[in-house]
Amino acid sequence: MKRTSDRVLALLGLFLLAFIVAMAVIFCVRGAVPDTLIQCTMGGGGLEALLLAGIKISKVIAGQKSGENKEEI
Fold first, then answer.
1. Would you say 45 and 12 are in contact if contact means Cβ atoms under 8 Å apart?
2. Which of 1, 3, 25, 46 is most exposed by smallest CB count within 10 Å?
3. Which of 47, 48, 42 is nearest to 5 (CA)?
4. Long-range contacts: 38-45, Cβ < 8 Å, 24+?
5. Distance between CA 71 and CA 38 in Å, rounded?
6. Which of these, 17, 15, 8, lies nearest to 50 by C-alpha position?
7. pLDDT tens across 18-70, in order?
8. Cα–Cα distance between 60 and 68 in angstroms, integer?
9. Side-chain-side CA neighbours of residue 3 (13 Å)
């Protein structure tokens, strides 16, 4: 069973792949791309991945703390 974080990362990867392909097509057709759109899209994807990593790290830390309490009892 896939976890939610795996699904989010898969969807993010598929979206970014489709976005990059679309920007390549636009560049071939028009000879230029919307730089601000690319910057904001890639920045948003990076922020999403960073927040997901923060959530994962906090869950690991919380799991370690609860595991330590169980061992002491």
1. yes
2. 1
3. 48
4. 41/16, 42/16, 45/12, 45/15, 45/16
5. 50
6. 8
7. 999 999 999 999 999 899 998 999 888 888 888 888 888 888 888 866 555 55
8. 12
9. 5
Task: Specify the amino acid at residue 3.
Answer: R
Phi-psi category of 31—alpha, beta or left, where left has phi over 0 and alpha has psi -120 to 50?
A: left
Where does the pLDDT of residue 1 fall: very low under 50, low under 70, confident under 90, or very high at 90 and above?
very low
Q: What's the CA gap between 61 and 27, in Å, rounded?
A: 45
5-31 per-position pLDDT tens digit: 788 888 888 999 999 999 999 999 999
- Rounded to 5°, the CA angle 23-25-28 comes to 110
pTM score, two decimals?
0.67
Place of tokens 């759109």: 37
